Amino acid sequence: MSYSGSGNDGDAGNGDARHAGGDAWRSGSGVQPHAFDPLQQPELFRGVLTRRVFAFLIDLVVLTVPVVLGYLFIAVFGVITLGLGWMLFWLAWPATVVWAVVYYGASLGGPHSATLGMRVMDLELRTWYGAPGYFVLGAMHAVLFYVSLSFPLVLLVGLFNGRRRLLHDIVLGTVVINSSVRTQVAQPARGY
User: Domain range for residue 168?
Assistant: First the structure.
């Protein structure tokens, strides 16, 4: 199976001598090699951590605006219904969590494999073997990210590895790369 920009041309298991190097699947175990090598393609990871911080802030605004509007709607609805509408406030917090998980799942699992903030900052999420994200991966990425925010020192892991992966990226097997650089490195997909 071949993914755009992964360096995996799909025929690594044919026993050909040209695939005996680092790109070959090792010992037929079915484990694919890492698609993005920080030593061979350092431009994919240049500035990723700084851009992720700004992408997070943009996504925080995208998530916060509908939540604030929802709270304002409930407050006004409560005034109009003489207090009965305020009973909807208990739904606001669970709805906020569902909104965040669906936002991250749909955007990271979408065609760009990036949230709105990541797209603005020219980043995209890929699996370690080069495949684009999918809904469940995006939702789990959000859940583990917010769990890791409760332990801020865990975020320092990104400073000490070549792929600039945070702990939740390592656990999920994902990598965040510069998307414009990947499209320059990758061959265009053929549509036949």
Answer: 38-185
